[in-house]
Structures are given as C-alpha cells and as structure tokens.
Design goal:
Number of helices: 4
CATH class: Alpha Beta
Number of domains: 1
Strand content: 15-25%
Largest sheet: 3 strands, antiparallel
Oligomer: single chain
Strand order of the largest sheet: 1-3-2
Shape: elongated
CATH topology: Alpha-Beta Plaits
Number of strands: 3
Structural class: alpha+beta
Order of helices and strands: EHEEHHH
CATH superfamily: TT1725-like
CATH architecture: 2-Layer Sandwich
Length: 128
C-alpha cells in the first residue's frame, strides 16, 4: 500500500513586547492577555509568554501558526506581526497613557517613554 501522507507547516515567531505604562505584573498581564487574544482570534495563533515572567514592562512571546502550505504559514506570521504593531492599537495605547497622565496616574517621564516606544514601533512598520 502506497498511501501519501499530507504534511503541514508550523511557523514560529518570537518577539519582545514592551509595556512602559505597566506598573505591576497585574497591569502587564492585562496588556499581554489582550495581545494574545487578538493573535488567537485574528490569525488562529497559539501564543505563550516564554521569558521575562517577573518583569513588569517586558515580555517575550512565541507565536505559532499551523497551515497546509508554506506560503499560508508565512502569511499568518506576517499578519501576526502587523497585529502587534497595528497603528490603531498603538494610537489607543498612547491615548490611554495621556488620559492616565491627566488623571495623575503616571508622570510626564512615563508618558514620554510610552510615546517613544509607540513612535519606534510605528517607524519599524511591523519589521522585527
């Protein structure tokens, strides 16, 4: 019997996330849960935090996508990168930080750090 076995592709992306507005592990986890949920719902990715577990403002995640075709696996990872650097989401993050500054929850220096991170991510244009 000569049966052909179908194969698939697994695409993996590891990236660093920076949450300068997080002041606790709880706040970091909220941001991380949101990013993971977006990746899971929009590209069907499996996502795990793989490093910096006890650091408030950083996370390293690994994103895995499975597809039948090599090109589809690459497309899914490209979309995952775009989701992480979506200008609308970054803009919302900046607006939230400005609101927190006005409410006295963060300092001007903290807002400046968030703005710098957002600008760098926008300039990078989804490239890691």
């Amino acid at each position: 019997m000569n049966a052909s076995v179908a194969s698939g592709w697994v695409a993996i992306l590891t990236c660093e996330l920076h949450f300068p507005e997080a002041h606790s592990l709880k706040e970091k986890r909220q941001h991380l849960r949101s990013a993971k949920a977006q990746l899971q719902s929009r590209v069907g990715a499996s996502v795990a935090e793989v490093d910096h577990h006890d650091v408030w403002q950083r996370a390293r995640i690994t994103v895995a996508c499975v597809a039948r075709e090599h090109r589809e696996a690459e497309r899914l990872l490209d979309e995952a990168e775009r989701q992480l650097d979506d200008p609308v989401l970054l803009e919302g993050r900046l607006e939230e930080a400005e609101r927190r500054l006005e409410a006295g929850e963060i300092s001007q220096d903290e807002l400046d750090a968030i703005e710098e991170d957002v600008v760098l991510r926008l300039m990078r244009g989804g490239k890691r």
